[in-house]
Amino acid sequence: MHPVHRVLSAALICAVSLAARADYDGGAEALRRGDHAQALRMLVAAADGDARAAALLAEMHERGLGTPRDPEHA
């Protein structure tokens, strides 16, 4: 792989990681505030790259917070 491609790949991975973290942090805060719709949007965006977001999203589905209760989907 060309060195420029390595640098660009690393930068993209960092950007995706930071975006997932920002979505997790924002989603967790929205959930604490009781803004379930915003929490759901943000956590769905972060769930692919952040296991903590996926866990909170599963809890929301299990408890029916901002989405119909769905223990199987959780």
Structure description:
- This protein is mostly helical and about 70 residues long.
- The chain is built from three helices and no strands.
- The chain has helices at about 5-35, 35-45, 50-65.
- Helix 1 packs antiparallel against helix 2.
- Residues about 10-15 have low confidence and may be disordered.
- List low-pLDDT spans: 10-16
Q: Distance between the terminal alpha carbons, to the nearest Å?
A: 40 Å
Main sheet attributes: strand count, strand direction, barrel closure:
none
Listing every helix as H and every strand as E from the N terminus to the C terminus, the arrangement reads: HHH
Number of strands: 0
- Structural class per helix/strand content? mainly alpha
**Overall geometric form:** elongated
Mean pLDDT, nearest integer? 80
Helix content: over 70%
Strand content bin:
under 5%
CA radius of gyration is 15 Å
Q: Helix count, per DSSP?
A: 3
